[in-house]
Specification:
The chain is mainly α. It is 76% helix and 3% strand. The chain is built from four helices and two strands. It has helices at residues 2-39, 52-74, 82-111, 125-149, and strands spanning 116-117, 122-123. The chain has a two-stranded antiparallel ribbon. The protein starts with a helix and ends with a helix.
Length: 152
Amino acid sequence: MKQLLLKQKQVLSFIFAGGASAVVEIGSFKVFSLFLPQVLAWEENIFGIHYPLSNILSTTCGIFFNYFLSIWFVFERGKHSRRREFAYFMFVSFFSTLLSLTVFQIFYYFVFRDNLNLGFYTLSPIMISKISAIGLVSIINYTLKKRVIFNG
């Protein structure tokens, strides 16, 4: 029973850390996607890829925030040194970033074409695509981080 409770606690902690990281990522994406196109005209659409630098920078912010939450609140130390643990975390995060960017583009081009009116706030297709990509990639992240990085 104790093992089950610990496992549930870890999943809930991961969801909390992921949610907090998603807030950082989405918030920074909103800021970057508003201001970077004013400086870099190609940011809105370069070779058919929408907001690539905003996506990369915001994902990086979310990754670093998530790493610190993961080592402080979610996972116990694994068998790896801190340096190796960080390297594995960054490798998985790099893979996740590529996956997230790909999923974002697919959602933005093919799935979410209209605004979503929530009554109190309206989400644009770009924000819906970003949120959906984060949600999908989070499942893969948890599995890889738990089994490969933190060995728990």
